[in-house]
Design a protein that fits this description.
Blueprint: E1 5-13, E2 19-28, E3 33-37, H1 44-51, E4 59-64, E5 67-68, H2 73-79, E6 80-83, H3 95-105, H4 112-121, H5 137-149, E7 155-159, H6 167-182, E8 186-191, H7 194-200, E9 203-208, E10 211-217, H8 218-225, E11 228-234, E12 251-252, E13 258-262, H9 271-281, E14 286-293, H10 296-307
Helix pairs in contact: 3-5
C-alpha cells in the first residue's frame, strides 16, 4: 500500500540563509499515529506548513495520497486537516458557524448532523451559540480541532495541540486521536510533552536543527535505546569497584554507596544472579536492590544532546 504521506529530501531555506529543513525524508502509512519531537526551532512547524501547502519548499517533494502538495494544492488540502498552534479565526463568530464555515471552505456540502457530532465529541455542543471570544483558552483549542475535522480529512496534523491546556483536555485529546485512528484517519502530532508521544503514538520521529535524527516504532525504540539499570545500595561505602567485578562494568555513585549495573546491554557474565554472587564473593555487602528503565524523555534528551 502506498503511504498517505511521502516526504522526499525536503529542504527549506529562508531568505536570510537559515536552513529550517535539511533534506528530510519520511513515509507515513494510512491509519498511523506518528509523533514528531524536537525543541523549538527544530523544523517541526516548517515541515507541517509545507505539507499543508502554507509554505513552499526550497527543494524536495511532498505527496499526499499520491498528489503533489505544490502542483495539486486544492486536492491535497481537501485531504488534510490542520490544528495550528494559534487561534486563527473570527472571535465574534459563533462556534457552530465557525466549524460549519470550515467544512464549506473545503468544498464539502453542509451537514449539520455531522457538525453536531463533532461538537458533542469535543464537549462543545453546549457552547455552539457562543462567540469564540466568550470561550476559555481550552475551549478555543477544542474549536480548532473541530474546524480541522469539519471536512472529514484523511490526514490530520496536530501542531502542539495541547500546549498550555489543562490535563483533562490533554487526556480528552488523546482519546479523540485514538478514536480517529480507529476510523482510518492518519495523525501526525508535534508535541513538547514526551508523555503525549509515549501515550498515543505508533512511531516516534525526533527532529533537530532541520534534520530527522530517527524515526522508529515506539516499542522498538524503547528496546533499542532504553537503558535498564539495577541499582545496588551498599551497607557501607566503598572507594572503588573491586577488581573482581570489572567484567560487569559497574558505575560507582558519588560517595560510594551505590553500584549501577546496565543489565540490558551487558549479558555476557552470568546476568544479575551472577553479579550478586560476585559482589558477595568480593566481600561487598548490599542492603537493597532497585531497577529502573529509561523513559522516552531520557532517550530524547540523550539524542538531542549528542547532536548539540
Amino acid at each position: 500500500m502506498s503511504p498517505i504521506l511521502s516526504i522526499r529530501d525536503l529542504k527549506k531555506t529562508y531568505a536570510n540563509g537559515f536552513e529550517a529543513l535539511k533534506g528530510v525524508s519520511l513515509d507515513i502509512s494510512e491509519g498511523e499515529i506518528i509523533a514528531l519531537l524536537g525543541p523549538n526551532g527544530a523544523g517541526k512547524t516548517t515541515l507541517i506548513s509545507i505539507a499543508c501547502g502554507i509554505a513552499n519548499p526550497s527543494g524536495g517533494q511532498v505527496l499526499v495520497a499520491g498528489h503533489d502538495v505544490v502542483s495539486e494544492f486544492r486536492k491535497t488540502r481537501s485531504i488534510i486537516g490542520l490544528v495550528p498552534q494559534e487561534l486563527t479565526t473570527d472571535l465574534f463568530e459563533t462556534v457552530f458557524n465557525t466549524v460549519s464555515f470550515s467544512r464549506g471552505l473545503h468544498g464539502r456540502k453542509p451537514d449539520p448532523a455531522y457538525i453536531e457530532s463533532i461538537l458533542r465529541e469535543l464537549s462543545l455542543w453546549d457552547k455552539r451559540d457562543n462567540a469564540l471570544r466568550e470561550l476559555s483558552g481550552g475551549m478555543k483549542r477544542r474549536v480548532l480541532i473541530a474546524k480541522a475535522l469539519a471536512h472529514q480529512p484523511r490526514l490530520l496534523f496536530l501542531d502542539e495541540p495541547t500546549a498550555g491546556v489543562d490535563v483533562n483536555l490533554r487526556k480528552d485529546m488523546w482519546q479523540l486521536v485514538s478514536r480517529l485512528r480507529e476510523g482510518g484517519v492518519t495523525v501526525i502530532l508535534t508535541t513538547h510533552y514526551i508523555e503525549e508521544a509515549e501515550e498515543i503514538a505508533d512511531r516516534i520521529g525526533i527532529i533537530n536543527h532541520g534534520e530527522l535524527l530517527l524515526v522508529e516504532d515506539k516499542d522498538t525504540l524503547m528496546r533499542k535505546l532504553g537503558r535498564k539499570q539495577l541499582a545496588i545500595d551498599l551497607v557501607e561505602p566503598i572507594d572503588a569497584v573491586p577488581p573482581h567485578l570489572a567484567a560487569w562494568q559497574l558505575e560507582l555513585s558519588p560517595g560510594g554507596t551505590r553500584l549501577i549495573y546496565d543489565y540490558d546491554r551487558q549479558t555476557n557474565h552470568g546476568g544479575i544472579t551472577g553479579l550478586l554472587s560476585a559482589i558477595e564473593a568480593a566481600g561487598v555487602r548490599f542492603a537493597d536492590l532497585s531497577t529502573r528503565q529509561s523513559s522516552l524523555e531520557d532517550i530524547f534528551v540523550s539524542l538531542i544532546g549528542e547532536q548539540a
